[in-house]
Write a structure and sequence with these properties.
The structure is a homodimer. By secondary structure, the first copy, chain A, is α/β, with parallel strands linked by helices. Chain A has four domains: about 120 residues, Immunoglobulin-like; about 60 residues; about 280 residues, Glycosidases (TIM Barrel), CATH 3.20.20; about 90 residues, Immunoglobulin-like, CATH 2.60.40.1180. The first copy, chain A, is about 30% helix and about 25% strand. The first copy, chain A, is built from 14 helices and 28 strands. In chain A, the strands form six sheets. Chain A has an eight-stranded parallel β-sheet with strand order 18-17-16-12-11-10-20-19. In chain A, strand 17, helix 11 and strand 18 form a beta-alpha-beta unit. In chain A, helix 3 packs across helix 5, helix 6 runs parallel beside helix 7 and helix 13 runs parallel beside helix 14. At the A-B interface, strand 1, strand 3, helix 1, helix 2 and helix 9 of A face strand 1, strand 3, helix 1, helix 2 and helix 9 of B.
């Protein structure tokens, strides 16, 4: 037996379903990322029973604004069977945005379509239909009047009169009913009673341009004469085309268990220690290492850099040396063993005896969160707008989500770069919960197959909506075997690949000097690593002219300022990797010989579907040479003795 | 200036994120579909910062049950970089189910892994580590005691004692710490304080088997002597292997504007009219056409059919003839023109002058919903458990969602088949909101390319989780050009394709008699269509032996009872379509010559990755012949004069 049946809902539920909005991350659970000035191309399926004509708009606003802005959406092509509406809007402010789709039925348009089909079928007994149309126009006229739209009201009322007048001829009434101008006037005053919206607005995080596009240079200030010495390099760095100057931690360095040269367990009296062993009697995360200068010097550096449109990026490393003030002020924030001893950082068999991790499972985790927030706040107040976050993947995701969201509330222009090398899901999770950019596995992708697969992974699918890679060619921790073995051609190849594949890329000082000696065979650690020593550095490396040229090309080429506009080309030679990047009128073809040791010849096969003309000229932006190319097979040969890469601009 | 910063949350948010559950439809917005007895294979990404060992289980229950049932999940393979956990559970009851994933950290396992790595690295100063382990064991022992698990408690406490005793040797302590038995005992009493769950439980609709697998036969009872005459055919239908007997509407047929033979506008005095023009002075949707018998006769038919394990499926068509009682009882439920006239159904230039649609925008839409619910309830109370719903895509989606959910609350065994031919999104939407099965575009997919593309569309991706096709070879409305032109071989080819590609398929009476004459060139309407006439029908068509054989093969072949286990094979001849269906040990290869006019030769190329042995025997289940086949190319030739298809069972 049936139990008492369910009653219908009190209000009629919307007959229209709107679904599958793009761009959306996990169906809108997380925000997609865009930069200010971007046009956001949106799409959604609008589904309704029956054959009613539909209308849809995208509504969008910065989260802080009250009212929605609105832009029209284009319906799917007639007869395509598609239900996909599309359109877009420009984001003109940084910070969180929301957007949604609103759709409604258009009975007047449905009526027009039906009438058109009947007329086409030769029907002429349409009095009843025309009376229906007049009724719809009367309702539209009322809405136009309510909207105070005099011109529309007049146009609608005139058509209504013709439809209703027995004096009108069939043709007159037909003309009035089907007039596009009348339909447009009606469309401007929709009946929204049956309108439906997306289940929830879709979040969108809008950053400043630097979040997507920038050339990074990393240096240890102690090797350049401290903050003042670094300040002296700003003109040169600006001239080389760098946008971001990234400094490893600038705080006082611990003395207890300080590491010596080449990671020796015991430091000599003059060894400066690793800057990641943060904290000494001179202070912790909000102090500066006196060896580098004063806080005022640092602030002056930030200001000078900003004058040259360079951001100073600080390292945010949640570690403490044994001498960090927090160890005595907040012992409860650290891991203790049952015997009471402190647990230093380790990732067996690796040991970091000079570093203690904070314990996020501490009973006072809230106090710890607040202290870390205050650190970030401290540096923001001193002008810093970019943080390179050390090992974020070993701290709780909810902490980052809270921290980044909180910072962005007041400073939406702050950029967080995740230095995470871990499994893909966790790297994606960090990006989803708020990290602006991330380190990547680019460093270890050397073959044509690895590179193209990895870049496609980043550039295709949903990941491109929220995960922004930053391709570093090296770091103080990573001197790859490819660089150790390949000599200058290897350095050049990696530089060209990083600078042209990824809109954000970076160099750690020394790369341009072709530094390639590892501390031991099979190790990726530098010999006499700058992590434990002070070097005498200068901007005099042999690769700097190429760096300067590439940075200039990047700034002049919109296609190189995006990730997802890449198409890899068949080369018929695995030692040659080739790809096209296209952005509106700008098309750049890059060919790199990744075999550092030998000349290689092959093809760059340009497919039809890129939309390039059958034949065109390419200009090598590195050399100025010009070549005649076309759709199909184009010969390429690169001898590392002379050059490892073409960076070709298509001119038609 | 920074405003007052956000405070941390009061409770520590979970450090574990669980995401991307499968099977899920639109991220869990809609239910995936399964049948009772199925094992539901589930997966989810479990992501946590750091390197903690994790545990996860799937929790599941029928929606009505209170407590969760639980099954373990298998972690991703070590070193795979994957975060995907997988497992499954069996659904043993029809109705709505829910499932979720619960995951937590396992500090003892993390500690064991770290200790193992340290021992492997040759470390022996591990007192501090072993003390930590003892502490973890003490906590586990407490939980085991709380759970009343004496054996586990004992095993854990013993290991703890060894670890803590200064008398134990290093090896003894090491053994105790790393014992898998101890780890398992600890694992049985987890500390769930940091456990995380999916954001929301994932819905799953579990139907009876007929929802997925069944052979349908459609007939007009008036051509078989009414309900009693149909009852006389049940033994024969059961013998042919049919599971569902589908009847077009059985209600009184309108007299006003009744259609005559071949859709003539005026009916003759003896014309019975279209059964879809429902309602007369004799009643509406809850009455039966007296020409077919009485309600008691119908009920007897349903009972007799059930005795033979045949379901009687009723047509649920929300139309009314001009004589339907609702037109006078509820005129407000219908579309009226401004001049007061009723609007009959039309889809210009097509007109259905004998039918009036209900108006779901009526002010009394709630009354209409209730009346329609009562119609369905009426027939359920008379034993009907399958409804073939006419044109559901022209009625509001929320109405269907409400109706189906309401019916399933008391009768989860009721099946709703959507007779929808419309754009893909709307067909998908109907399936998502509750329709058990759907008509498809199979009827018009004739070429090898069209068929394989269409079936892959249904079998791949998320659609297979909720959209169950029913492949009808013909309907009273659809006699395709392929059948009109191809003669018996075309009928045989379509029959084999429908019966072997789709677990649910159907035949409309007359197909087995090779009826192939259309009312006019270019039309898909039958000449002298049974929609407007009474025929003298009998189960005597020449195709019935093939139908009987195919239905028997289907029942004996698990591989043919699923959709998504299909792999299309290269044939090197577009006139030959070949596919394998595999389910556990059962593998069926089907080859069909879709060129009805000519003999065709080609190959069936069996790829390696199907897991079949290098060589094997195939037995043609239609003829009993045996052939030696193998991985790679197998010759096939089919001459329509003799046969159009192989249905081959792999025997190894």
């Amino acid at each position: 037996m049936l139990s008492v049946p369910l009653r219908p809902p009190v209000n009629a539920p919307p007959r229209i379903i709107i679904e599958h909005p793009t761009p959306a991350v996990d169906g809108g659970r997380y925000a997609a990322k865009r930069c200010v000035g971007d046009r956001v191309e949106v799409g959604a399926d609008v589904v309704r029973d029956g054959h009613e004509a539909l209308r849809a708009v995208v509504r969008f606003r910065p989260e802080r604004e009250r009212g929605w802005r609105e832009a029209p959406l284009t319906p799917p092509a007639r007869g395509s069977g598609s239900t996909r509406w599309s359109g877009g809007f420009e984001v003109d402010a940084v910070g969180p945005w929301l957007w949604t789709v609103l759709a409604w039925s258009d009975p007047f348009e449905s009526w027009r379509e039906e009438l058109t089909r009947k007329l086409a079928a030769g029907e002429r007994e349409l009095d009843s239909e025309l009376a229906e149309g007049a009724q719809l126009l009367a309702a539209a006229a009322e809405r136009a009047a309510g909207d105070g739209a005099g011109d529309d009201l007049e146009a609608i009322a005139r058509a209504q009169t013709i439809l209703e007048s027995p004096a009108s001829s069939f043709e007159e009434r037909d003309d009035a009913a089907l007039s596009p101008a009348v339909a447009e006037a009606v469309g401007r005053h929709p009946d929204l009673r049956d309108a439906a919206e997306l289940e929830r607005p879709i979040p969108l995080d809008v950053d400043r341009l630097r979040a997507r596009f920038g050339s990074w240079y990393e240096l240890f200030p102690r090797s350049w004469g401290g903050f003042r010495g670094v300040e002296d390099q700003l003109d040169a760095l600006a001239g080389l085309g760098f946008d971001v100057l990234y400094l490893p931690p600038i705080h006082p360095i611990g003395v207890t268990n300080r590491k010596g040269a080449n990671n020796a367990l015991a430091a000599g009296p003059d060894d400066p220690g690793s800057p990641w062993a943060i904290g000494s009697r001179e202070g912790g995360h909000t102090a500066v290492d006196p060896a580098l200068g004063t806080l005022a010097d640092f602030e002056a550096l930030v200001v000078s850099a900003r004058e040259r449109e360079i951001d100073v990026a600080l390292d945010f490393a949640i570690n403490c040396s044994a001498d960090h003030p927090w160890l005595t002020e907040h012992p409860e924030w650290f891991h203790h063993r049952p015997d009471g001893t402190l647990k230093y950082a380790e990732n067996p068999p690796k040991k970091y005896q000079d570093i203690y991790n904070l314990n996020f499972d501490s009973a006072d985790w809230r106090g710890l969160w607040e202290a870390l927030r205050d650190v970030v706040r401290f540096w923001i107040e001193r002008g810093v707008r970019i943080f390179r976050v050390d090992n974020p993947h070993t701290k709780p995701l909810p902490f980052w989500e809270w921290l980044i969201r909180g910072v962005h509330k007041d400073h939406p222009d702050v950029i967080f770069l995740a230095e995470a090398f871990t499994h893909r899901s966790l790297m994606q999770a960090l990006a989803k919960i708020g990290f602006t950019q991330s380190y990547t596995y680019f460093t270890w992708k050397n073959s044509r197959w690895e590179l193209s697969e990895y870049v496609r992974e980043l550039a295709d699918g949903e990941e491109r909506e929220y995960f922004r890679p930053n391709f570093f060619v090296n770091t103080p921790d990573i001197l790859t075997a490819y660089l150790q073995e390949g000599g200058r051609p290897a350095f050049e190849a990696r530089l060209v690949l990083a600078a042209t594949l990824s809109p954000s890329y970076g160099i750690y000082s020394g790369f341009e000097n072709l530094e390639d000696r590892a501390v031991a065979p099979g190790s990726e650690e530098y010999l006499d690593s700058e992590k434990y020593e002070t070097k005498a550095r200068a901007l005099d490396g042999p690769l700097l002219p190429l760096v300067e040229r590439l940075n200039a090309i990047r700034r002049a080429s919109p296609a190189l300022q995006r990730l997802d506009d890449v198409t890899f080309l068949e080369t018929e030679n695995d030692a040659l990797i080739a790809y096209v990047k296209q952005r509106e009128e700008n098309a750049i073809v890059v060919v790199v010989n990744i075999d550092a040791a030998n000349p290689q010849e092959g093809l760059a096969v340009v497919p039809h579907d890129l939309g390039l003309p059958p034949s065109f000229t390419v200009t090598d932006l590195l050399t100025g040479e010009r070549f005649a190319w076309g759709i199909g097979r184009n010969f390429v040969g690169l001898d590392p003795a002379a050059r490892v890469a073409h960076v070709l601009q298509v001119t038609t």
